[in-house]
Amino acid sequence: MPERRLDRARFAKCRAMMERGATPGERAAGAAAASRVAAAAGLSLGEALRLTDDASAHEAPIRSRPRGPAPAPRRPYPWQQPPLRDDPISVEEILAQKAANLARLKRKAARERTRLREACAEQDADRAALREAQAERDRLWAEGKS
């Protein structure tokens, strides 16, 4: 039967609770949890402790490791960036950009109209089915009444 691998992150949390718990109960609960995690990997608590001690000797101490994600690189100021274009934008280019933007907006509006038309048709079909069912119930009620 293949052994499961030790869940090192979970074992490290349980070990921290076992070693640095505020109360004896917390420390006992941490030891019990650590032994359960070790048993799930097919190890005893001592074996798991030795295994993580060997691995942690190669890692940097917890306090020297940075916390959280690495800071994002600072963006340069606008005046430090090279200009996007050397030549000025002509009126024809601006008009072409406006025309392209207007065409994009028209295509988007047409897609939205189509989507709304389909949604309204679906709602109308649902409402028609509900009206028919209600009319049938009303007819049956009227027949039972007379």
Keywords, separated by commas or semicolons:
4 helices; 146 residues
Structural features, described:
- Residues 52-85 are annotated as: Disordered.
- Keywords: Coiled coil.
- Residues 95-122 form a coiled coil.
- Residues 52-62 have a biased composition (Basic and acidic residues).
- It contains 4 helices and no strands.
- The chain has 146 residues and is mainly alpha-helical.
- The chain folds into 2 domains: 8-61, no CATH class; 87-145.
- The longest helix has 55 residues, at 91-145.
Cα Rg:
35 Å
Tell me the fraction of residues in β-strands, as a range: under 5%
The amount of helix comes to: 55-70%
SS-based structural class?
mainly alpha
Count of alpha/pi helices: 4
Global shape? flat
Largest sheet: none
Write the element-wise H/E pattern from the N-terminal end onward.
Answer: HHHH
Return the average pLDDT rounded to an integer: 88
pLDDT < 50 runs, ≥5 residues? none
Coiled coil: 95-122
Region (Disordered): 52-85
Biased composition (Pro residues): 68-81
Keywords: Coiled coil
Summarize the structure.
The chain folds into 2 domains: 8-61, no CATH class; 87-145. The chain has 4 helices and no strands.
Write the layout of secondary structure elements.
Elements: H1 8-20, H2 24-40, H3 45-58, H4 91-145
